C-alpha cells in the first residue's frame, strides 16, 4: 500500500543480498517484510489459527485463538496490532517516497496532487469494503468507518506535516495531538453523559461524529473524525520518525538501539497512561497509540536486525512477496478470501475429510498458499499495485 523505500544498504546487508536474487541489495528489506508479515495474518494466517481444534478449555489453542479477536473494549490483543502496525509502516515510507519526489525536482503542487490522489483512491476502495459503494444504491450508501479511510486520513496529515514542518515541530505536534485527544475525551462534556466516562457513545468523538454525519455513520458508531485527525495521524507520525531514523547518517547498531528504546518506552508510557485512560482500539485512545507504537518499533527493530543487519533474508522472502503488494493482499482479505478458500477446498477438501478435526486446518493452510502463489505471480511479473 505504501511506497517501497530505497536507501543505501549497510555493508552487512549488501554482502548477504545475494541470498535472494529477487531482492535488490539497496532495499531496506525489513519494511517490505514487516508489512507482509502484518498482511499475512489477514490474508490466510488468522484463518489457520481459527481453524485449529479448540482442545482443552484454557489450553494453548484457546489462548492463541483469543489473540486473534479484538478486545471487546479496554485491553490489547495481537489482532489489535495489525491495523496500527500497517499505518505505522505507511508513515515509515513517507520520508523515502517524498524525498525521491523532491530529488526529481517535482513541484509542491505535483506532490500534493499525488497525496490527494492516493487519499482519494484509498477512501474509494475503503467505501467498497464498508460503505456499500458497490451496491450502486444511494439509499444504502454510508460514510462508514473503514480501515483504508483511516489509513488515508493518517497518511494525509502525516505527509503534509512532513512536507511543511521541521522535526522539532512535528515531535511537538505528535505529543500535543495525543494530549489534546485525551483532553477532549476526558474533560469535554457530552450532552446527557458524565464527563470522563470512557464508554461507547459517551465520549466527545462519538458525539461529534453523530452531529456531523448522522445516519451516514451506518453501523459503525465510532468517533473517527476527531480520532483520525489526532490519534491516527499520530500513529502515522511515529512511523515517519522511524523512517527518518532509517534515512539518517548513523550506524545500523545505533538505529537498532533507538528502535528498541522507543519501543520499550512506548509500551511503558502506554501502559502507565492506561491506568487512567484505557487502551481501547475501537476509539484509538492515546494510550493505545503509544502501546501499539511501542510494539511497532520493537517489531521493526527485530526485522531490521534479522534482514538488514544480519542478512538473514531467505526466511523473510514469503513476507516480502506479500508486502510488495499489500493493497492487493488487503483487498483479497476483505473481498475475495472466500473465493480462495473455495479453490483450496476443491483441491484439498477430499483429503481434509480424512483428517477429522484437522481437515479445516489443511484447507485454511491451502487457501493461504493459494493467496501467496497469486501474489508471487504478481511479484515475478513485476506487477505492483501501489497507491
Assembly type of the chains comes to single chain
Largest sheet composition: none
The percent of residues in helical segments reads 55-70%
Molecular shape: globular
Report Rg: 21 Å
Q: How many discrete domains?
A: 1
Q: Give the beta-strand count.
A: 0
Count of DSSP H/I helices? 14
Round the mean pLDDT to the nearest integer and report it: 86
Question: Could you describe the 3D structure shown?
Answer:
The protein has one domain (11-380). Helix content is 66%, strand content 0%. The protein has helices at 11-16, 29-51, 60-66, 82-103, 108-130, 147-164, 167-187, 204-213, 224-247, 252-274, 286-309, 317-323, 326-352, 359-380. Helix 2 packs antiparallel against helix 4 (82-103) and helix 9 runs parallel beside helix 11 (286-309). The longest helix has 27 residues, at 326-352. Mean pLDDT is 86; it is low at 1-25.
Keywords:
14 helices, mainly alpha, 387 residues, globular, single chain
Short description:
The protein is mainly alpha-helical and 387 residues long. It has helices spanning 11-16, 29-51, 60-66, 82-103, 108-130, 147-164, 167-187, 204-213, 224-247, 252-274, 286-309, 317-323, 326-352, 359-380. The chain has one domain (11-380).
Amino acid at each position: 500500500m505504501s511506497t517501497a523505500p530505497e536507501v543505501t544498504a549497510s555493508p552487512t546487508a549488501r554482502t548477504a543480498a545475494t541470498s535472494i536474487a529477487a531482492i535488490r541489495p539497496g532495499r531496506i528489506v525489513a519494511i517490505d517484510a514487516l508489512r507482509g508479515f502484518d498482511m499475512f495474518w489477514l490474508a490466510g494466517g488468522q484463518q489457520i489459527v481459527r481453524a485449529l481444534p479448540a482442545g482443552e478449555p484454557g489450553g494453548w489453542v484457546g489462548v492463541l485463538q483469543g489473540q486473534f479477536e479484538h478486545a471487546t473494549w479496554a485491553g490489547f490483543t495481537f489482532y489489535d496490532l495489525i491495523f496500527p502496525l500497517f499505518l505505522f509502516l505507511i508513515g515509515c515510507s513517507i520520508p523515502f517516497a517524498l524525498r525521491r519526489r523532491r530529488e526529481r525536482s517535482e513541484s509542491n503542487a505535483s506532490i500534493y496532487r499525488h497525496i490527494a490522489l492516493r487519499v482519494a483512491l484509498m477512501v474509494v476502495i475503503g467505501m467498497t469494503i464498508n460503505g456499500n459503494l458497490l451496491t450502486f444504491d444511494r439509499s444504502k450508501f454510508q460514510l462508514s468507518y473503514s480501515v483504508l479511510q483511516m489509513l488515508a486520513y493518517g497518511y494525509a496529515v502525516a505527509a503534509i506535516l512532513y512536507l511543511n514542518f521541521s522535526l522539532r515541530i512535528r515531535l511537538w505536534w505528535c505529543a500535543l495531538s495525543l494530549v489534546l485527544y485525551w483532553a477532549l475525551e476526558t474533560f469535554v462534556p457530552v450532552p446527557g453523559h458524565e464527563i470522563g466516562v470512557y464508554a461507547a457513545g459517551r465520549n466527545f468523538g462519538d458525539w461529534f461524529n453523530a452531529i456531523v454525519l448522522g445516519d451516514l455513520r451506518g453501523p459503525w458508531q465510532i468517533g473517527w473524525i476527531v480520532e483520525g485527525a489526532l490519534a491516527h495521524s499520530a500513529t502515522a507520525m511515529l512511523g515517519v520518525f522511524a523512517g527518518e531514523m532509517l534515512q539518517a547518517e548513523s550506524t545500523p547498531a545505533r538505529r537498532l538501539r533507538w528502535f528498541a528504546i522507543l519501543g520499550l518506552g512506548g509500551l511503558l508510557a502506554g501502559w502507565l497512561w492506561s491506568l487512567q485512560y484505557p487502551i481501547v482500539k475501537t476509539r484509538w485512545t492515546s494510550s493505545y497509540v503509544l502501546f501499539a507504537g511501542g510494539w511497532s518499533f520493537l517489531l521493526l527493530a527485530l526485522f531490521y536486525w534479522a534482514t538488514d543487519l544480519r542478512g538473514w533474508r531467505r526466511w523473510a522472502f514469503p513476507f516480502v512477496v506479500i508486502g510488495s503488494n499489500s493493497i492487493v493482499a488487503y483487498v483479497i482479505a476483505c473481498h475475495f478470501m472466500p473465493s480462495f478458500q473455495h479453490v483450496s477446498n476443491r483441491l484439498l477438501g477430499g483429503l481434509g475429510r480424512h483428517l477429522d478435526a484437522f481437515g479445516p486446518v489443511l484447507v485454511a493452510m491451502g487457501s493461504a498458499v493459494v493467496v501467496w502463489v497469486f501474489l508471487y505471480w504478481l511479484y515475478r511479473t513485476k506487477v505492483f499495485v501501489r497507491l
